[in-house]
Amino acid sequence: MGIVYSTGVGRMCPGCRRPVAQCVCKTAAAAALRAAAGKVRVSRQTHSRAGKAVTLISGLPLAAAELAALASDLKRYCGSGGTVKDGTIELQGEHRDAVVAELQRRGFAARRSGG
């Protein structure tokens, strides 16, 4: 077992044995997870929403904290509100084309689905 905590640098990553802020294995693991994941689906829904359009983003291979951070970035990018429910990001309004372009720019295999 290696060093878990150091007073000089704080918590240490058990994988690469570097400070957590300088961890190299978490970025490599995240890139591998994105590459191995399937398609990210971006769709539009109005059902049970009083006719208001909602953009749904599903299939993202991210942990809950990363999903919330991505949702926050996408809400800011689209200039709308939204939330994360059951691993799916919901954005208020019709933003399918913009979201697909942004997700592809970030390295996800995003695809627009639905009419």
What does this entry show, briefly?
32% of the residues lie in helices and 23% in strands. It is of the alpha+beta class. The strands form two sheets. Strands 5-6-4-3-7 form a five-stranded mixed sheet, with helices on one face. Strands 1-2 form a two-stranded antiparallel sheet.
Structure explained in plain terms:
By secondary structure, this protein is of the alpha+beta class. The protein has 2 domains: 1-36, no CATH class; 38-115, SUI1-like domain (Translation Initiation Factor Eif1, 2-Layer Sandwich), CATH 3.30.780. It is built from 3 helices and 7 strands, in the order ββαββαββαβ. It has helices at 25-36, 64-78, 96-105, and strands at residues 5-6, 10-11, 40-45, 54-58, 82-85, 88-92, 110-112. The strands form 2 sheets. Strands 5-6-4-3-7 form a 5-stranded mixed beta sheet, with helices on one face. A two-stranded antiparallel ribbon has the order 1-2. The radius of gyration is 17 Å and the shape is elongated. The model has no long low-confidence stretch (mean pLDDT 80).
